[in-house]
Structures are given as structure tokens and as C-alpha cells.
Design brief:
alpha/beta; disordered N terminus; Rossmann fold; 2 domains
Length: 270
């Protein structure tokens, strides 16, 4: 069990491989209520896979994921740990909202219907209440006039902001962001980052995979640098960016500053 009531996430000894490729090689990590934790590192280091394991849409090969002190990914049966079935994880997953690189909006539904679909179907929320809150959320991001539009009629930045508030419509206590600006044109990135910054100031617990290091410095309480499937360094942004203790962290950041490396853009399992 989690040792502290304030811990929203605890990951212990998480391992995951895809075929012969080891993606997570024993990750230990905790996130407390209200924290903004940013994951950085080269492509292929398991950052996105870690988020997917926490959100329980990916099965870890071994290790434990606790959400609010509850062992969420596995259960004990006849002395062995087995994966929980999807139906057993619904209650836990409702506490989390995940936003991906791709917007994943339903193309055949209007913006409003995209937002109210899960609250009505999963949370059994009254339709009038769901619609009212969806309109309030759209107004907060300046897209109230797009309620009857379809995703194809929106810009990429608008679609991604809708994807974020669709997740927020479920009233999650934890938001997971996986490179949410990587598929956007540069001029559309800031509007999405501004929305995330606003969420942070409101106290939302957040885990963010990003290659936007300026944004990471601004929003993060902690920066977690991952390499080769493990957590190499976990420290406040002022430490990571000014005086990292690990050589691999220094080399990674130096490669970005000189333009000689990548910032971890792309799917981790590739």
C-alpha cells in the first residue's frame, strides 16, 4: 500500500518489454496530490509506456501500480499476482484522465457530444448536467462557439484543447499528458500549453511527457529524467536544468541545447 495518504500514484519495480525490446527495466516513482511531474528523456526510454501502464491501458510484465493507495494493476490469486481484467479497473481509471499525442476525438460526433459521451455513459451523469458542464469547460478555453462543430472543422490546437477538457469532464484527480503538443504545428502549441499551465495553477495532479523543456521548467515541481527504461534522476527543475547530478542527464540536456539530439518526441516503444 502507499505509505502516505497524499500519494496519488506509486509505481514499484515496473518492467515492460515489447518482444525482445526492454522498455521499462524496473521503474520506481511516486506522485503526490497536487504535484506536477514532468518526464523527459530520449525517445525509446519508456516515458509513454509508463503513463500507459499507470492508466492501466497497458499491462506491465511485472511490478505494481498503486492509485490512491489501491493496488490497481494486479491482484493476488492462489498466491500469485495476475492482471486485473478491464472491468475490474473501471473505478480506478475513472479517477484518471489521459490525453495522447493524437487527439482521438470521435470524428462522427460534435465537440459537445465528444465531451458529454463518457460522463453520461460511464459516470451515469444526468444529460442536462453533463451538457451544462461541457459548455462551461468550452467557455473556459474560448471555444463555446464550437460546440456544434465536428473535429474536422477545428484546428489541431483546438482539437487538442477539446481532448483535454473531454478528459476533465470526468472530474479526474490525476491527469496524464503524453506529448500532447508533438503533433501540432508550432504556432498552435502555446494555446495547449497555456491550458495545461492553468490546470497546474488550479492544483491538478499531473504527469506530463514532453519535449518542451521551457514549458517543463515553468510547470514542473519535479523533473524525472529517464533513460534505457529506468529513472536516472528525479529532482526539482532548478536542479535538473542547472546542476544535474547524473552524467546522462547532463549529456541529454547538452545535446538538446546544441541541436545534436532529440527531445524524446515519438512513441516510446519504437
Amino acid at each position: 500500500m502507499c505509505s502516505t495518504a497524499e500519494e496519488v500514484v506509486r509505481v514499484q519495480g515496473l518492467h515492460k518489454r515489447f518482444g525482445k525490446q526492454i522498455v521499462l527495466a524496473g521503474v520506481d516513482l511516486t506522485v503526490s496530490k497536487g504535484e506536477k511531474v514532468v518526464l523527459i528523456g530520449p525517445s525509446g526510454t519508456g516515458k509513454s509506456t509508463l503513463l500507459r501502464c499507470i492508466d492501466l491501458i497497458e499491462h506491465a510484465d511485472s511490478g505494481f501500480v498503486y492509485i490512491d493507495g489501491v493496488l490497481a494493476n494486479v491482484k493476488k490469486r492462489r498466491g500469485n499476482y495476475v492482471h486485473r481484467k478491464m472491468g475490474e479497473t473501471v473505478a480506478v481509471r475513472k479517477r484518471m484522465g489521459m490525453v495522447f499525442q493524437q487527439f482521438n476525438l470521435f470524428p462522427h460526433m460534435t465537440v459537445l457530444k465528444n465531451i458529454i459521451e463518457a460522463p453520461i455513459r460511464v459516470n451515469r451523469e444526468n444529460r442536462r448536467s453533463a451538457v451544462s458542464r461541457a459548455k462551461d469547460l468550452l467557455a473556459q478555453i474560448g471555444l463555446e462557439d464550437k460546440a456544434t462543430s465536428y473535429p474536422s472543422e477545428l484546428s489541431g490546437g483546438q482539437q487538442q484543447r477539446v481532448a483535454i477538457i473531454r478528459a476533465l469532464a470526468m472530474n479526474p484527480e490525476l491527469m496524464l499528458f503524453d506529448e500532447v503538443t508533438s503533433a501540432l504545428d508550432p504556432q498552435l502549441v502555446q494555446s495547449v500549453l497555456d491550458l495545461m499551465l492553468d490546470l497546474g495553477t488550479r492544483g491538478m495532479t499531473m504527469m506530463i511527457v514532453t519535449h518542451e523543456l521551457g514549458f517543463a521548467r515553468e510547470i514542473a515541481d519535479r523533473i524525472v529524467f529517464m533513460a534505457e527504461g529506468v529513472v536516472v534522476e528525479d529532482a526539482p527543475p532548478q536542479v535538473i536544468f542547472s546542476a544535474p547530478s547524473e552524467e546522462r542527464t547532463r549529456l541529454f540536456l547538452s545535446s538538446l541545447l546544441t541541436g545534436g539530439g532529440n527531445a524524446g518526441n515519438g512513441q516510446d516503444k519504437e
